[in-house]
Design a protein that fits this description.
Blueprint: H1 6-9, H2 25-33, H3 39-43, E1 49-52, E2 56-57, E3 67-74, E4 79-83, E5 86-94, E6 99-105, E7 119-125, E8 127-129, E9 132-136, E10 139-142, E11 154-157, H4 166-179, H5 181-184, H6 191-197, H7 202-210, H8 215-245, H9 259-264, H10 271-285, E12 291-296, H11 303-315, E13 319-323, H12 327-344, E14 348-351, H13 357-369, E15 374-377, E16 391-396, H14 404-411, E17 418-423, H15 429-436, E18 440-444, E19 455-459, H16 464-476, E20 480-484, H17 494-513, E21 519-522, H18 528-539, E22 545-548, E23 561-566, H19 574-581, E24 592-596, H20 602-613, H21 617-628, H22 653-669, H23 679-691
Parallel strand pairs: 2-3, 6-9, 12-17, 12-18, 13-15, 13-16, 14-15, 16-17, 19-24, 20-22, 20-23, 21-22, 23-24
Antiparallel strand pairs: 1-11, 3-5, 3-7, 4-5, 5-6, 7-10, 8-9
The protein binds adenosine-5'-diphosphate and magnesium ion.
Length: 694
Amino acid sequence: MTRKTGNEKGIKLNDDIIKLPKVGEATKSRLNALGIFTVHDLITYFPRDIEDRSEIKTINETCNGETVTFIGRVFQKPTMFNAGRYKITKVLVTDDTGVVELVWFNQPYMISQFKVGNSYYITGKIKQEFARREISNPIFENADLETHVMTGTVVPKYRLTSKLFLKTLKSYIKVAIKEVKEELKNDFLSDELKKEYDLCSYEYAIKNIHFPDDNDAYAASKKRLKFEEFYVIQLALSLLKNKVDTKKTGIKFDDIDISDVISSLPFELTNAQKRVVSEIKSDMTSNKVMNRLVQGDVGSGKTICALLAMIIAKRSGYQSALMAPTEILAHQHYEFFKSFADKFGFTCELLVGSIKAKDKKDIYERLSRGEIDMIIGTHALIEDGVSFNKLGLVITDEQHRFGVEQRSVLTDKGNDPDIIVMTATPIPRTLGLILYGDLDISVIDEMPKGRQKIDTLVVNSSYYDRMYSFVKDEIKNGRQCYIICPMVEDSEKESMTELASVTTYTKMLKEKYLLDESVEYIHGKMKGKEKNDIMDRFNNGEINVLVSTTVIEVGINNPNASIMIIENAERFGLSQLHQLRGRVGRGEYKSYCILISDSKTDISKKRLDTIKKTNDGFKIAEEDLKLRGPGDFFGTKQHGVPEFKIANLYEDTDLLKMAQTAVNKILKDDKLLEKEENNLIKEKAISVLEYNTL
Ligand code: ADP
Ligand code: MG
């Protein structure tokens, strides 16, 4: 039989964990469940904390009630006996200063774990009566093997699952580190940098974050790994930006008058909108490439700013593209734009995945001939077949839903077009620093006049009767209601249960609470046309109550809707709740957001309370970051925030700043990291961009 060994196979960091010795299909799937796929994932599966079991006491030093670690030798044959319903196993150990009895209940197999004459590391809580010492259910390891990882050392604590024990996980990590030892020696931080910031080597850090010799080793490793994370991400983003900046000049659009469009609007622009439009205009009319983030809370009126910018492009003879994350949203933007098209003499089309191949082909052709001025769509815009005649402006709406790569694919279809990204998710300052570096930011910090404050209530499910009678009243008054369905926890079955949950919920409403109202549902797995149909019927008032999954989270605009009900509210990110709440209160009507939660934990209460008390998206985002950490910041992953494995944006601001200084320094001499000495770090930075959707 041939045993898998690293040497034969030459295991690399990027290999699948299955290549590791002792890792089979079952283990693989357990590790996968924790997000561990490659050897690199495994060795960077960092502990959350450590417990110090490194101090080894002698038995006579231990006191009653203390949790201790000592080395004990088994000096007589272990025994087992019955006491009532229990099978008790006893092992006596000594270190020549005293004796401890190790005791297990109903674990008869423990008897075979110990050999007379052998020594073990033992950790547990001492129970002492006079000279007699006892530990129930101790943790133990063979002291003769050099592989002890649980006792007699500083023991890191990990996030685990019920099927994966700490001891097992640690043994895999240990094997993995051994297998890739040589690769770990390739430290991508230069010696100079490490010296300047007092950082340990990569190899040392990886070993000591998992198997620290002591507290100091652990702390030093943590520092290095956190610094590294900040450094690499900021470097990656700066690289991306410098790449854009090196092309010095972009399009210089004409200084066009758009006051005719502005004065045709049924409302006056807010001062904030006016300011943002003029910032955009001055970027567009300059010859540098615009790279601007427009940040404005939900309902602040970003779409009109996009339209105005696109009209400037059209009137200067350029095409423009607006990319939205969902078909529903693209459709809605398209309808809005179309209503201006004839009057102001531009052509616009919708390009989404669900349109017929024949129509798509037609759009492709007209687009490449320059017959379409404005194209609005989803990811369908970045497909290969799409080409432009003269693309001058690219706008992405709800930008946090797109990755850097996707945005740049669209941009590359033009010749250095100007770029606007719009987002309603306010980015806390620390995060902004990382995500955008010195990208220009415009903020719409003012709501259109006449908006009423949305009342937010947090209730539990015992309020159903009252709540639905209120919903009925509102419907009688002509209003409409959204209900966001309970979320499902099991992500494997998500697509199935997502559907089941909206349909069952709708059925329940139709049968029990809303017998005479028109209730319909919508979810992400529906076909584009079905979704649009439902949205159209909701928008023109045919449907009173729309039951939905979070597909309606971003952008949807129906000013007549006045109630937003969110089931299992505690499971959403705060910013996401705020987004959902922003679907109501978009018109003149008093609106309500009802958060339903049966959760009694302090943290959920605190979070929902934050939503209830504040309507300011920025404050909510800060609070969310504080309460949940950046990984969960946008409610789900892949919403554009880099996921930090060990660094914490909120707590580690000093390291963040240090890393930033270091980034500026290295890029000062080597703007695109082209020098040979920077090869390793460049490779690392690029790999981060590939894996993170920033
Ligand atoms: P968001 O910033 O969330 O994308 P929208 O652009 O969808 O917001 O605008 C929300 C609603 O507010 C739309 O119905 C829009 O027509 C309206 N609106 C935009 N600007 C103003 C304004 N200055 N005064 C009144 N209503 C406005
Ligand atoms: Mg919007």
